[in-house]
Design brief:
Elements: H1 4-7, E1 51-54, E2 62-64, E3 73-75, E4 78-80, E5 88-94, E6 97-104, E7 119-123, E8 127-131, E9 166-173, E10 176-178, E11 181-184, E12 187-192, E13 195-202, E14 222-226, E15 234-241
Antiparallel strand pairs: 1-15, 2-5, 3-4, 4-15, 5-14, 6-9, 6-15, 7-8, 7-14, 9-12, 10-11, 12-13
The protein binds magnesium ion.
Length: 250
C-alpha cells in the first residue's frame, strides 16, 4: 500500500497563502464515483457554435510545440500520445473559453503516482489542468487528476477506471494584463466526469513543477496544449466555445 508520504515532496517551497508545500502532503480529496454514462460509448456531438479541434479525424488543427506537424497518432476516432514526440498545441489561440474534451488513460495499468497515465491540458499553453490515472493511484494531491498542477487539488477525485473515457468541461477566464502589470488573475471552473472539481478557482500564475509561481505578462490569447508525458493517453471530442459573455468582472 502506497503511503502519501512516499509520493509527496518535502523539500519544495510553501505555496503562498497555504500551509502546504508544492507537491507536499495535504488532505486527499475524497473519491466520488461519477455517473457511468458515456464512458464506453461514442461521444456526444459538439454544440453548433463550437470550434472543433478534434472530431475523431485528423490532426489538422494541431501542431508540434517544437515546430512541425503534430506527430501523435490519430486513429479509431481518437488521438493518442506518441511518447517522446513532444507536446502538441492547437493552431488557433484562445482567451476566455469553454473547453470540452475527453481522455482515457491506458487500460493496461503501468507505473504509479505521476508515472501512470500522465498527460495534461494546458490552457493558453501555460496553465495545466492535470491529466493522470488516479483510480486507486495515490499521488501528491496538487498533482492528481484535474488538479491545477502544483497549486490546488480538485475538490474530489472523480476518476473512472483506466481505459474508460473521462470528460473535462472547463470554463476558463484568461488573466488580464495592463502593460507588464497583472490587472486580473486567471480563474477556472472544472467539471470532471460531470462532477465539479474547481469552482471559479483563482490561479496563482502559470503552473510549475516543484516551484511556486507568479504571473508574467503574455498575449491575451494562447493555444490549447496537450502534454506528452510519455504515457499512452488518448483524447477525443475536443471543442471550444468562445462566446462566454465575460465582461471583465463588471
Ligand atoms: Mg501532466
Amino acid at each position: 500500500m502506497t503511503e502519501l508520504s512516499d509520493v509527496c515532496y518535502d523539500d519544495t517551497p510553501l505555496i503562498p497563502g497555504t500551509d502546504y508545500r508544492v507537491h507536499g502532503p495535504r488532505p486527499v480529496p475524497p473519491v466520488v464515483t461519477p455517473p457511468q454514462t458515456n464512458c464506453r460509448q461514442e461521444p456526444d456531438s459538439p454544440p453548433s457554435d463550437a470550434i472543433v479541434l478534434f472530431d475523431g479525424g485528423d490532426l489538422s488543427e494541431w501542431k508540434n510545440v517544437k515546430g512541425g506537424e503534430a506527430a501523435w497518432k490519430a486513429e479509431n476516432g481518437c488521438m493518442e500520445v506518441v511518447p517522446k514526440t513532444g507536446d502538441i498545441q492547437s493552431k488557433k489561440n484562445f482567451g476566455d473559453c469553454q473547453l470540452h474534451l475527453e481522455w482515457a488513460a491506458p487500460e493496461e495499468v503501468k507505473g504509479k503516482s505521476q508515472g501512470r497515465g500522465n498527460s495534461g491540458v494546458f490552457l493558453m499553453g501555460l496553465y495545466e489542468i492535470q491529466v493522470l490515472d488516479c483510480f486507486e493511484n495515490p499521488t501528491y494531491p496538487d498533482g492528481q487528476t484535474a488538479a491545477i498542477y502544483g497549486q490546488c487539488p480538485p475538490l474530489v477525485n472523480a476518476c473512472r477506471r483506466p481505459g474508460e473515457w473521462q470528460t473535462y468541461d472547463i470554463l476558463w477566464e484568461a488573466p488580464r494584463f495592463e502593460g507588464d502589470k497583472l490587472q486580473r488573475p486567471a480563474y477556472v471552473t472544472v467539471l470532471h466526469n460531470g462532477i465539479m472539481v474547481h469552482h471559479h478557482k483563482k490561479l496563482m500564475g502559470p503552473t510549475e513543477h516543484k516551484k511556486t509561481t507568479s504571473y508574467r505578462p503574455h498575449p491575451a490569447e494562447g493555444p490549447l496544449q496537450l502534454q506528452d508525458h510519455g504515457d499512452l493517453v488518448r483524447y477525443r471530442n475536443i471543442w471550444v466555445r468562445t462566446h462566454t459573455g465575460y465582461d471583465g468582472g463588471n
